[in-house]
Amino acid sequence: MAGDFGELVLVLGDMHIPHREAAIPEKFKKMLVPNKMQHVLCTGNLVGKDQYNDLRTLAPNVHVVRGDFEESTTFPETKVVQIGQFRVGLTHGHQIVPWGDPNALAMTQRQLGADILISGHTHRNQVNEFGGRWFINPGSITGAYSAVESDAVPSFILLAVQGAKCVTYVYELHGDQVEVSKSEFSKASSA
């Protein structure tokens, strides 16, 4: 059931546990408590099954797509989930070339018929509008290094969705301080 914030959606990815990082940072673990969110959307690269089981304790609706380093091959390449009035597309992002490119992301978003496209792989968090559509990248929740980001900042994103309105909260860990930035957008009405 949604509260005052609407439906709360945890968006995360690129854990790379245990190969690149040992665990989710303790400051983040304390914030991610069960039964506060309605959805978890993960861009993949959990790597181990334990991480998936941990995500399943956080929310009743957990959606994970396959990353390029996934041990499990049961996760789909892409997924579309309806949250509020938004069709949310989910993909890892290694399939989108060039990685993180706005035009390439827009093409994937159109193929999925999504209002919001969530992708990872770059390990850099972003919330961007391009061509009237929204693109979200949660970065790496563990701060794991990648081919394009050797010094990634641990991050995740929380969405608060109320009907056609979405508020994003980007959480970044800098040293022992969690910094939060906020933005919001609305789905254009089809008048």
Automatic annotation (TrEMBL):
GO cellular component: cytoplasmic vesicle; cytosol; retromer complex
Stored Gene3D superfamilies: 3.60.21.10
InterPro entries given in the database record: Calcineurin-like_PHP_lpxH, Metallo-depent_PP-like, Phosphodiesterase_MJ0936/Vps29, Vps29
Coiled-coil region(s): none
Keywords of this entry: Protein transport, Transport
Keyword Glycoprotein among UniProt keywords: no
Any Gene Ontology biological process: protein transport
Record-annotated Calcineurin-like phosphoesterase domain positions: 9-148
Pfam family, one: Metallophos_2
NCBIfam families attached to this UniProt entry: yfcE (TIGR00040)
PANTHER family in UniProt: VACUOLAR SORTING PROTEIN VPS29
Entry similarity comment: Belongs to the VPS29 family.
Name listed for the protein in its UniProt record: Vacuolar protein sorting-associated protein 29
Provenance organism: Ectocarpus siliculosus
